[in-house]
Amino acid sequence: MKQLTRLLMSVLILGITACSKQLPADIANSEQSSAAITIGAAQLQQYLPLLVNKRLGLLVNATAEVAGQHLVDVLLQNQVNIDTIFAPEHGFRGDYDAGAYVKNSVDSKTGLKIVSLYGANKQPTTEQLANIDVLIFDIQDVGVRYYTYISSLHYLMQAAAAADIPLIVLDRPNPNGAFIDGPVLELAFQSFVGMHPIPLLHGMTVGELALMIKGEAWIDQADSLQLTVIPVAHYRRDMAYSLPVKPSPNLPNDQAIALYPSLGFFEATPLSVGRGTAFPFQVIGYDKFALADFSFTPVSTPGAALTPPLMDKPLHGQDLRQVSSHGLDLRYLLDWHQLFKQHNELFFTSENFMDKLAGTNKLRQQIEQGLTEPEIRQSWQADLQHFRQQRRSYLLYPE
Predict the structure, then answer these.
(1) Which residue ranges does the record assign to the Peptidoglycan beta-N-acetylmuramidase NamZ N-terminal domain (predicted)?
(2) Which of the listed residues 17, 114, 172, 338 has the most CB atoms within 10 Å of its CB?
């Protein structure tokens, strides 16, 4: 099976020959960054032939943008027959709060039906796929295991395999692609915030992950899935990549995305990481005691309307908007845990959620036992080395 996957990848890589001169001028000029990369969605000549006379289903959100236009609009302009839009967490337009139930609806602009995969079901049903010939996934991910778009990809792949529907993944860069770090998920802690035995920071794009999910048979009927990945042209995973569209309401900029691997764990604590402010995932604060003297007050705002932690209370803590952040930094968790311990206050108020975020109960236990950051990191190394070897067959871009 793995030999077949390697062959498939070779075919994909050899088949992707697009360069900017092959693209319409407006798309080429917009998508060519200083690094000269071209996202998968911008390589229309590579996948439009696969959509001729086909009824299409798309799992997309606001990040599925091509030269300032939504992919849906681009496809409609090219006479593609779109049957259904599937919506992940945060919705098709990216305006639902984190964790908010996303409803089925109709897109006001195009009149297309929108089927939620973050509501009554997370996997498309047989009925929802009945009129679909081809599926497309195009969502900008941030490279962190507990960010749920890759969980939605998992379920779309599984549904496509079961229904014998080809799936095309339009790849995009990983803004945290230079890092492989954190504990590898143990399957006993599998949940929608962690589906696969990969590190917290896996250093892969969604296209590479899709190949790995298929190749490692992490979905049912993996061998039967007809998977095509349109890679990013001229891309290396160590390239800096600033997202043109914020991937969700509370990751509004590059700094928040860089800090997200480190601050996401605070969702299992009583602290605020700035939801309900203009700088979510760029601050840490509490109302009773603090590590620093920066002050802010969370309020109910679009994207944080579901009662952000410590809403309407003046909080004090750390302003991280200007810090240099690279990958996973455990100092924030360790320092705040130590402060809570000194005040005899419970830090992990949701142990179960913390363990799901970490993909293991060991990280929480290590912090509670007082292990140092080097000691904790050392405990990950064997698993990380195994993962590095395991993923090699699925990589599309230079290390």
Answers:
(1) 57-254
(2) 172
pTM, two decimal places = 0.88
pLDDT tens-place string over residues 258-307: 999 999 999 999 999 999 999 999 999 999 999 999 999 999 876 665 66
Q: How far is it, in rounded angstroms, from Cα 89 to Cα 248?
A: 9
CATH code for residues 2-245? 3.40.50.12170
The neighbour count for residue 367, using CB atoms within 10 Å, is 23
pLDDT for 306 equals 61
Identical fold, 2-245 and 254-368: no
Length of the chain: 399
Question: Which residues of the chain, if any, have pLDDT below 50?
Answer: 1-35, 96
Structure tokens at 395: 């990589």
- Closest by Cα among 334, 340, 394, 341 to 366: 334
Whole-angstrom distance, CA of residue 392 vs CA of residue 203: 11
Q: Which CATH architecture has domain 254-368?
A: Alpha-Beta Complex (3.90)
Distance CA(396)–CA(212), nearest Å, equals: 11
Q: Count CB atoms within 10 A of the CB of residue 192.
A: 15
* Cβ–Cβ < 8 Å for 58, 86: yes
State how far the Cα of 291 lies from the Cα of 15, in Å rounded to an integer.
Answer: 53
The amino acid present at 285, given as its one-letter code, is G
Residue among 370, 359, 279, 369 nearest 323 (CA): 279
Q: Rounded to an integer, what distance in angstroms lies between the CA atom of residue 146 and that of residue 266? A: 13
Q: What are phi and psi of 294, to 5 degrees?
A: -70, 140
Edge to edge, what strands does the sheet with 315-319 contain? Answer: 283-286, 315-319, 294-296
Q: Per-domain residue ranges for the chain? A: 2-245, 254-368
The candidate with the shortest Cα–Cα distance to 235, out of 14, 10, 33, 67, is 33
Q: What is the DSSP letter of 111?
A: -
**CA distance to 46, 47, 52, per residue, from 16 (Å):** 7, 10, 19
Q: Is the dihedral of CA 65, 156, 104, 95 positive or negative?
A: negative
Alpha helices in 48-178 (DSSP H): 71-77, 149-163
DSSP state of 231: P
